[in-house]
Each structure stands twice: as structure tokens, then as C-alpha cells.
Amino acid sequence: MEIVVSIVGKIGEYIVPPFGEHVGYLISYKRNIAKVKEHYQKLLLKREAVQQSVKGANWNQEVIAREVQTWQTNVDIRIEGLRKFLEEDVKANTMCLNGWCPDLKFRYSLGKKSQKNTEAIEELLQEGEKYDRVFIRAPPLEVGSTSNGRFKNFESRKTKINQVLEALRDDKMDMIAICGMGGIGKTEMAKEIAKRVKGDNLFDKVAIAVVSQNPNLKEIQAAIAECLGPKLNEESLSGRAARLHSTLVKSTKVLIILDDVWEPLDLEAIGISHGDKDNSCKILLTSRNEETCNQMNTQKIFPIKLLSKEEAWNFFREMAGDSCIGSSSLRLKAKMVEEECGRLPIAIATVGSAMKDNSKENEWDAALEQLKKSIPQYIPGLHPKVYASIEFSYIHLKSKDVKSCFLMCCLFPEDYDIPIDDLVRYGVGRRLFADIDTIAEARRRVHAIVHNLKRSNLLLDSRQKAFIKMHDVVRDVAISIASRDENGFMVRCDVGLEEWPQKDTYEGFAAISLMLGKTTKHPKGLKCPRLQLLQLSSSICPLPPNMFDGMKEIRVLSLERMSLERLPPSIQVLKNLRMLKLEYCSDKLKNVSVIGALEKLEMLSFCGSEIKEVPKEIGNLRQLKLLDLSRCYYLERIAAGVLSCLSRLEELYAYEFDKWKSTGENGGGIDNASFAEIIPYSHQMMALEISLPSIKLLPQDLHFKNQKMKFRIRIAPRFQWLKLDSTSV
């Protein structure tokens, strides 16, 4: 009988169209069913894409067009009908007479329904193409992912967490606080609470913002907004507050966690109001100071106490390993060391990690003696034993370069996402690493150091890849250690300074890191004969012409977010400068040719700056190993011949620049560099990120011989992107 159907099909091809169409439903029913199944899957994917887009638009407080909502309704109806059709009709028996004969009428019906459904789906898919880009920003990360498994569920903490959760369920409570000394575990407890309330559906959204000792209200607003969804585009503080308040009013069941509050905070200036009858928005504070919480009219304060003796000892054993109980005498010494940690989690974690798997009794004796003799510097809200423990962990770091990397992390602001590559470049510039020939080798060394510092509980993971964080308590101690005469650090980078710190002399400083106010004026004629690292940020005032005359030993110079019209002529005296960082500087900086006089420069970064030209003088930097032009969106020209002169170049980052000159191109327009200029030394390249307007500009004789090289190449013919990277070949 199947043969008969095939013959009928052939006849149908020659019959008038209406009849042929009906015959087609019969003979092509299997093909039609397969096609509708394929289109059904496409429609499911399209519906999901539009749903995500609409969800993002809602997060961003954008109005969804009625036609989008109508399309979603039509798709839902169509999908439900298709599901029944595929599960019931298609799976039904298409034979009759006990399987001896095909049921032609039923097959005809299936073929027709499949064809009509396919046509309807195609219309919906075509219309849906307009709606899957309603919103393109990724939704915020879930709060539950921030804890990184660091929270220790001590029995004493379980009780306290349950009490906090009970208070958050109370309709009469809208602001509560967790209080305790630095290093007691307030932040990790707050993150665990955030995770719990999300899991228990107690709140729909949870926002966490770090306040810190010198709060920046705009950054606090941005952190809260990022967790809730809407992006704050307003410039003024009041405008941002109004927008954030509007978001909170429209939201239901929101928990805002304000971490590390030092002084009473003006919540209304941020855009947070509390005390409303519905209490849909609740606030959880963490602070070292109960009086601060009282002044903010907190309704209930939960003090966090020390660990119990049993909890402290068990935690110490976990950190130090079972080798500390190898014998009764060793166990006794380890117990005495643990007691010096004062039952404080951060102290136990750092000391225990420093002594991990150590079974030498004399070293436990030395550790105990060192902890007892420590003379902590006074830091508000910080227990002296925490200071002593972190200092002990620092002293027990195995090498000088590890200690130097640790101290460099305190050069950045509190709660800052520290780029690991900045540590690499600063370390290479300061000659911290022995027996290192390439920047790639230094990078591997720094990543290993960072890994060890995290294992020692002196550094933390960041939510961003290739970044790390430093706990505020650890940073306080690190700054204290770094400020000692032998290290010579001066760090003032948590608030914009109205003026440079008043000092009798600057001659003892080896590293200075300052966050300046917008109108901070720079001193003239500073004498800093020992200074090797200078990091300045956020200033619109010009640098004095003789700024660097008394700083001839500088090896690392970082000027970030500066509004400079020109670099001071005195920069030419920095004959020992190895690393120059001019990042996110304004378009006022038009001429950087003076940099060509820095003959020993090895690393030069313009990342994010609004420069328009890399002048020919940069070609004089014959020692240059790294050139970073990433995010230089306004860059129009790399002078021809510059790259060919940089014969020691190992790393080039120019992913946003695509105005390369083709080989053999003459005259006309701007005289730009050719990508072929790097061919003579391509064998030594270790990192390359570039964009080319055409694949024709990729030289055929370009050979990257180093198997460990990392590269990312984007080729864009007529807006069609081809991306190549070191993982795709």
C-alpha cells in the first residue's frame, strides 16, 4: 500500500495546484512532522531568548512594548497546542484494519496540521527577531556566589544567624545590625545570611554594598543598583538617589546589606528609605561600632562574640593540619599558639595557615615567642591579637618577593579589585623577581605567589577573573607594616586628598600611593631620593614642570585618571624608569612624545586613555617589552616604523585599534604602522591582542614559534567578525 501512496504522489505533481497541495499533505506527512518538530525547538529557544531580554529590561526599568507581550502570549498558546499535537496526534497509530492498511485520512490530517503549524511558527519566529534584543546587559550575579565557601558554620554562629533570620522575618523590623571587632567574621556571616534568605525565598533580591572607613556614596549606590538591576546613568548624587529610591519602591521584598559601616550613614542621600509600613525593603548593617548603629536608629543589634574554646581549637587544627598533634608535647605547644590567636577567626586562619603541616617543635616555640613579643600598632576596632597574628603570618612568608607582592596589594583602595597584572608589572619594574627574563615568566611567578597568599588567608578571591582582593583588616595591618622605615610606604588612597600629606621630609619613602581630590595641587621640588614607586590618581591639576627632579630613582610611575594637558619636562630625568602607566587619562593629553627619552622603559600602558596618536618617538624605547593600548577607543594612529623599532617587544595589546596600513601601501591619509612590522621579532612574542579590518593584512610569513604564546586576533571584513585566540588553534 505504501507503493500506492508513492504513485499517487507522483501523479499529484502533475495535477492542478489545489489538488496537488492536498495530495502533498498525504504523501509528505512524515517530512512535515519532522519539519514542525524542528521549528518547535526553534520556537522554544526564541521564547527563552525573548523572556531573558524582557527580564533584563524589567531589571533596567524599561517599559516593555505591548506588541512584545502580545507576541509572548501568542507563542505560549502556540507552544501549548504544539505540545498536545506532538504528544497525542503524532504518536497515534497511522494504520487501520489491524495494521494491514495505512489510514490515509489520518495521515492527510497529520500532514496538513504539520504544514499549517510550521507556517504559523515561521511567522512567529520572524516577528520574534525584533524582540530578542530588548535588553542586552547580563543580569547581576546572584549574591549566593560571593561567599566562595569561606564561611565556617560554627555552632555559636548558627545560633546567631538563626536569630538574625528571625528578626528579618519580623514585620516590625526594618533595620538590624551585626556588630563585632575587626576579624570576628561579620562580613562572611552577612554573606551567608544573604545566601540563606535567597534560598528560603525570604527576599526576592539581595543587594550588598561595602561602605568602608571613607564611604563613597556614588559607589554604594552603584553597588546596590547592580544587584537590583537598573543602571544609574544620572551624574548628580540626588538624581541617582531618586532613581534608586524609585527602583526600591517598585521592588518587593528587598534586603540591602551595608557592610563595614564606620560612621552614621545618610541613607536618604543614597536613596534608601526605611520605616515604611509594608517594610518591603529591609537593611542589615555590619559594623565594628555599636554606637554607630544606634545613631542610625537600628532596631536590633546582634553582637558577635569570640569563638568558644572548642571551636577555636578545632578550627586551628583544621588550618594547621593534624601534624600539630603528633605528640603530646607538640600538641601542648600548638595549643598555646592557638590561644595567642584570641579565639578570633581571622587570626586563627592566618597563623594556622602559616604553621600548616609543621611538626618541628622548635619552630612552634619560635612562633609562640614571636606572637607574645609582638607590639601591635593601634588600629580602631582591631583586637591586638589580630594584628599580631597577621604580622606573624607575614613574617613567615617564605621569600622576599612574596612579602613584597603582599605589601604591594595595600597600595590600592579598600575593597578594591586588584588586577594581578598590575602586581606583575609593578614587580618587574621594581626588580623584585630574581632570574626572570620575560614578563610571561614574571606573570607565572606572581600567579603562584597569589595562590600561596590566598592559601595563607592573606588574600581573597575576587568575583572578577584575574583580580584579587585584600580583606580590610589584613590591609590595615599590611599598611602598618609597609609604613615602617625599612619598607617606606605612604598609602593614602581611600579618599580624595585636598592636599598632599604634610611631612617634614619625603626622603625616607620608597613607595607613595595617593588618591587625590579633583583640585589637589601638587608640591614643587619634592626631594624623594629613595622613591622607587609613585602612584597618583584622580586629579585635574597640572603636574609642576620640575615635579620629578628630586625623584630620579623612580622605577614605577602610575598616573591614573589624570586630566593632564602635557607630561612635565622633568619626566625625562627618570633614567631608571622601567614601568610607566598612563591609564584612563583624558583627551587633553595630546602629546606624549617626551616619553621617547625614557631609554630604559620596559613597560608602557595607555590602557583606557583618550590619546589619539602613538608618536614616532616611542620607537626610541629599544628596551620596551610591553605596550598596552587596550581600550584606547580614540586612537587614530600608531606612527609608521614605531613597532619595527621595538625589537624586544614581548607583549602587544591593541585590540581596539584597527587602522593598520597594508604592506606596500603608499601615501594618502594618515601614515600608520603596518602589522607586518612585528615580523622580525614575532618569534619572541608571548602575548598579542589586535584587530585587523581585513584578513589580507595578516602577513603570510608571520610565525609565532612560542607554543606558550597567548593571542587574540579579531578580523572584521564588512562587519563580519572572525575571532581567533590561542585556545582555538
Verbal overview:
This protein is of the alpha/beta class. The radius of gyration is 33 Å and the shape is globular. A hairpin with a 6-residue loop joins β22 and β23. The N terminus is likely disordered. It has four domains: 127 residues, no CATH class; 161 residues, P-loop containing nucleotide triphosphate hydrolases (Rossmann fold); 165 residues, no CATH class; 217 residues, Leucine-rich repeat, LRR (right-handed beta-alpha superhelix).
List the helices and strands and how they pair.
Layout: H1 2-12, H2 17-27, H3 29-59, H4 66-89, E1 95-96, E2 101-102, H5 104-128, H6 155-169, E3 175-179, H7 186-199, E4 205-212, H8 217-228, H9 237-250, E5 254-261, H10 267-270, E6 281-287, H11 290-295, E7 300-303, H12 309-320, H13 328-339, H14 345-354, H15 361-373, H16 384-395, H17 400-408, E8 418-419, H18 420-429, H19 439-455, E9 460-461, E10 467-469, H20 472-482, E11 489-499, E12 511-521, E13 533-539, E14 556-562, E15 579-583, E16 603-605, E17 613-614, E18 626-628, E19 637-638, H21 642-645, E20 651-654, E21 687-692, E22 710-715, E23 722-725
Parallel strand pairs: 3-6, 3-7, 4-5, 5-6, 11-12, 12-13, 13-14, 14-15, 15-16, 16-18, 17-19, 18-20, 20-21, 21-22
Antiparallel strand pairs: 1-2, 8-10, 9-10, 22-23
GO molecular function, one term: ATP binding
Pfam families: LRR_14 (PF23598), NB-ARC (PF00931)
Protein name: AAA+ ATPase domain-containing protein
